[in-house]
Design brief:
Layout (H helix, E strand, L loop, with lengths): L2 E2 L2 E2 L1 H11 L2 H13 L4 E2 H8 L3 H13 L3 E6 L2 E6 L1 H12 L8 E2 L5 E2 L3
Antiparallel strand pairs: 1-2, 3-5, 4-5, 6-7
Helix pairs in contact: 1-4, 2-3, 2-4, 3-4
Length: 115
C-alpha cells in the first residue's frame, strides 16, 4: 500500500476496507496481528480459522493485494505477517482530525488523540 505523508490514498483505504469486509479475511488479519512480526504459515492460519487451505489462499491473496499483509518465503513455506505500518496508516486515515484535532474522551472513557 502506498503511503502518502503518513496517510493513505483514498483508493487504497477503500481497497483495504473492502478486503477486511469478509469473515475469513478479517479472521486471518486479526490472527496475523496477534502473531506479530514473525507471522504465520498459511497452513497454520487455515487450521486456526477452520477453512481449507485452498480457500485461504484466495483470501490471503486479497489481503496481500490490499497491502494489509506481506508474504515471505521460508524454505518450502510461505509465511504471512500483518503490515503494521499500513494498518496504522489505515487507522490514522480513519481517525484523522478526530474531535477537531483535540484529545477527546470516547463513550468508553478512552482518551482519543489519534491525530
Amino acid at each position: 500500500m502506498e503511503l502518502i505523508w503518513g496517510y493513505m490514498e483514498t483508493k487504497k483505504v477503500i481497497a483495504a476496507l473492502a478486503a477486511l469486509a469478509q469473515e475469513s479475511r478479517l479472521a486471518s488479519f486479526r490472527l496475523l496481528i496477534q502473531a506479530g512480526p514473525q507471522g504465520m504459515a498459511a497452513t497454520k492460519i487455515a487450521e486456526h480459522i477452520g477453512i481449507p487451505p485452498s480457500s485461504l489462499s484466495f483470501h490471503l491473496k486479497e489481503l496481500v493485494h490490499a497491502g494489509l499483509i506481506v508474504p515471505r518465503q521460508d524454505g518450502r513455506f510461505v509465511i504471512y505477517a500483518a503490515d503494521v505500518d499500513n494498518m496504522n496508516a489505515l487507522v490514522g486515515f480513519l481517525t484523522d482530525n478526530c474531535c477537531g484535532g483535540a484529545p477527546c474522551i470516547t463513550g468508553q472513557g478512552i482518551v482519543c488523540d489519534a491525530v
